[in-house]
Amino acid sequence: MKTIKVFEGCRLEAYKCSAGVWTIGYGHIEGVKEGMKITQEQAETYFESDIMDYLLPVQKEVGQICNANQIAALTSFAFNVGNAALKKSTLLKVIKKTPKDFAEIEKQFLRWDKVKKVVKGKVEYISSSGLKKRREKEVDLYKKA
Predict the structure, then answer these.
(1) Which of 9, 27, 59, 105 can pair with 63 through a Cys bridge, CB separation 3.0 to 4.6 Å?
(2) 2-143 belongs to which CATH class?
(3) Catalytic residue numbers?
C-alpha cells in the first residue's frame, strides 16, 4: 500500500490523469467529475476500498505460488495498469509458469514503462521515468523473500 501511495500521490482535487481519466485521491476514478474535491480522510477511505479491487484478483491468480511481497508488487502493478491488463500480460504468464525466474519476471515488469500520448493525431507510447521507477520498485519488492 505504501508503494502505491508514493507513486500515485494524493490529490484532493479532481484532475485528469495521463490517460485522460478524471481522478482524485490516490488514483480513485469511480464517480469522479471535474471540480470535485475531497478530504484526506475521504482519500484514505477510497484507497482502502480501491486497493481490494486489485488485491483480491491478484490473490486469486497467484495466491498459491507467490509470497506476500510478490502479491504486493503485483497489486501495485495491477492498480496502475488495471486488472484486465495484468490478466492478459506476459508477466502473469511467466509468473504462473516459472515463478522463480526472477530475471524474466523483471524483464516483463520493466516492459510496462510507457505512457500513451497523442502526437499530431497519432498514438505513440513514450517511456516514462516515473513508471520506470515504479516498475523497478515493484521488481525489488517482488524479489524479497
Answers:
(1) 59
(2) mainly alpha
(3) 8, 17
